[in-house]
Amino acid sequence: MKNIDKTNSNILANKRILIFLQRGWGLNIGQFLAKKLQQQNCRLAGLTLKRSLHQYMLKQAEVKYDLLINNDEIMSRPKDYLKGEHYDLKHICEQLGVDSIWPIVSTLRNHVRSYKDKYYYSFKQNVSDQDIIDYVMAVYKYILYFFENFNPDLIISPNFVALPHIMFHLYAKKRGVKMLAVTDCKVRGVFIFTHSYQDNEGKFYTHIDNLNDNKITSPNSKKAKAYIAQFRQKFIKPSYVSDRSNKASLVKKIKHELAPYYHSLRFIIKPPINVLKSTGITGDYKPPRILLRDHYAHKKYKRFANKYSYYPFDKLKKFVYFPLQFQPEATIDVAAPYFTNQIEVARLLAMSLPDDYTLVVKDHPEMVGLRSDSYLEKIARTVNVKLIDYRIPNENIIKKTSLIISPSGTTIAEASFYYKPVIQLGNLGTTQKLPNVFKHTDLTTISGLIKKLLNTNLKTSDYDQKLENYIAAAYDVGFDADYLKAWTKGDKTEMEKLWTVYKNEIKNIFEHKT
User: Fold this and answer.
1) Three-state DSSP class for 119?
2) What is the pLDDT of residues 226-236, one digit of tens each?
3) Are both 484 and 466 inside the same structural domain?
4) Does residue 506 sit in the same domain as residue 379?
5) What does the alpha-carbon distance between residue 426 and residue 139 come to, in Å, rounded to a whole number?
6) Cα(first)–Cα(last) distance of the chain, in Å?
7) Among residues 253, 276, 209, 221, which one has the least CA distance to residue 429?
8) d(Cα 328, Cα 335) in Å, to the nearest integer?
9) Taking a C-beta distance cutoff of 8 angstroms, is the pair 479, 190 a contact?
10) Residue 299 has what pLDDT?
11) In a 10 Å sphere around its CB, with 0-12 CB exposed, 13-18 middle and 19+ buried, how is residue 318 labelled?
């Protein structure tokens, strides 16, 4: 073991690594990785996302950070941080290599949506355009500060979910600096590393290409074939899907009903510090009236969803499936910013269907209780759209549909096992590697592709090989440590496993760079 550490230190010694110390991930995985990297003689810096976490990092003595900056303090008062400095959006876009900053701005859920106006978020803008621009400039300023005063060799983030992540990635990429995050590859129990906010850069993606081009072979081809056969025999649900079959005990129900009153009392006695002046009420800062509003709105929405008269699934004949995405969430706001108005997208898709086809829409199960009555009513009362019960298993819908259209989501991968074509509206790179996926982002011309795919037979030997290569690539370069358990519970066993895979990935990045 000592020899391994010595070898690693030759590679990692004095490497400057910036870590996004983000909420629970920062407290558990982020700080754990920082300790391990410090043992490898790395120099460390941190961007903290949450004031309480920033205070903890300032007080702790286990890890020495050369530089710590708190995003939330800057987000709360961006003008104070700027101190009169100004950066044109044109200049920022040039430095990031993008045509516009506004698709990235759409990821700022507490700026572009309003939590105070409605549960669960209103589509009304919460912060003025100028205040948003001030924050964009402030983020750009602290990016410059990190690069001028720390000059990272590598950036580690839990994910790519918001504007700071994306701006850091784009700025770093233009300067040859990798940014590393973990993402789900849609193979149960397997996670992969990604080097891009669109999940299209990293070993997984090049490995699939090499397998498809017959440049290499996989030692896990038999395992991949077995996984495909098992999936087709018995539908495999994602490991993170919650089990809704277990009913809560009476004690849990009572605790649930009393929870908003308990948290309201705590708020009055000791107001939380995680409040942002710029955005005010958010999911992290809920005064008593918001706590009570959320509690009873959730009950109302859930009751409506459970009692609603959905279109009978058994009456459907020829249809195209459009599964609603969880929102706001990275899978749609980051990877598909032009398709976040899912009601309007459904309307336009329904207009584009040929012959006797109708568009079938199902709500995301995790959004039940979060999606308002009016939202579901608007979809259900849209021409040529049929809203079906969210409790209908995805397996049944996928097997019966002729085509799926979606900006992202697990349904895309699930459909690949049944030779079902998918039109992907967004830019998510992981699912684009599946053989059933056809990316198309122009809704004014989508009708032609829909008609073509409805008459396309995907059952070919080439398709089967590419699906096998996808699964094999996940086993070849992915990892099966319980990432979510380490993240949410700080499980030491899983984090030790994570350190091994992180260390190998980091070594690989630096070895290829040199």
Assistant:
1) coil
2) 999 999 999 99
3) no
4) no
5) 25
6) 25
7) 209
8) 12
9) yes
10) 97
11) middle
363 with 469, same domain: the answer is yes
Q: Hey, is 198 helix, strand or coil?
A: coil
442 is a domain residue: yes
How much is the pLDDT for 409? Answer: 85
Q: How far is CA 467 from CA 418, 435, 459, 464, 474, in A?
A: 11, 6, 11, 5, 11
CB contact burial 134-173 (16+ within 10 A = b; e otherwise): bbbbbbbbbbeebbeebebbbbbbbbbbbbbbbbbbbbbb
Whole-model pTM: value is: 0.93
Question: What is the chain's mean pLDDT, rounded?
Answer: 94
**Please, are residues 46 and 66 in contact by the beta-carbon 8 Å criterion?**
no
Quickly tell me which residue has 């233009």 as its tokens.
174
Query: What's 8's domain CATH number?
Result: 3.40.50
For residue 270, give the DSSP letter. Answer: S
Amino acid (1-letter code) at residue 88: D
Query: In the Cβ-directed half-sphere of 330, how many Cα atoms lie within 13 Å?
Result: 15
Q: Are 447 and 173 in contact (CB under 8 A)?
A: no
Contact 199, 183 (CB under 8 A): yes
List pLDDT tens digits, range 376-417: 999 999 999 999 999 999 999 999 999 999 998 899 999 999
Domain range for 157 is 2-107+127-213+478-513
Residue 243 pLDDT level (bands cut at 50, 70, 90): low
- Count of domains in the chain? 2
For residue 121, give the amino acid letter. Answer: Y
Structure tokens, 421: 């074509």
Please confirm whether the linkage preceding 328 is cis (ω < 30° from 0): yes
From the list 358, 428, 353, 417, the residue with the least C-alpha distance to 197 is: 428
In the chain, what are the helix, strand and coil shares in percent, each to the nearest 5?
Answer: 50, 10, 35
Residue with tokens 């590697």: 433
E strand or H helix at 43, and its extent?
strand 43-49
Over its C-alpha atoms, the chain yields an Rg (Å, rounded) of 24
Count each helix (H run) and each strand (E run) in the chain, helices first: 25, 12
Q: How far apart are CA 257 and CA 271, in angstroms?
A: 21
- For residues 58 and 186, state if they share a domain: yes
The model's confidence at residue 500, banded by pLDDT at 50, 70 and 90, is: very high
Per-residue burial over 341-362, b if 16 or more Cβ lie within 10 Å, else e, is ebbebbbbbbebbeeebbbbbb
Phi, psi of 369 (to 5 degrees): 95, -15
Nearest-angstrom CA–CA distance, 243 and 241: 7
User: Are 397 and 382 members of one domain?
Assistant: yes
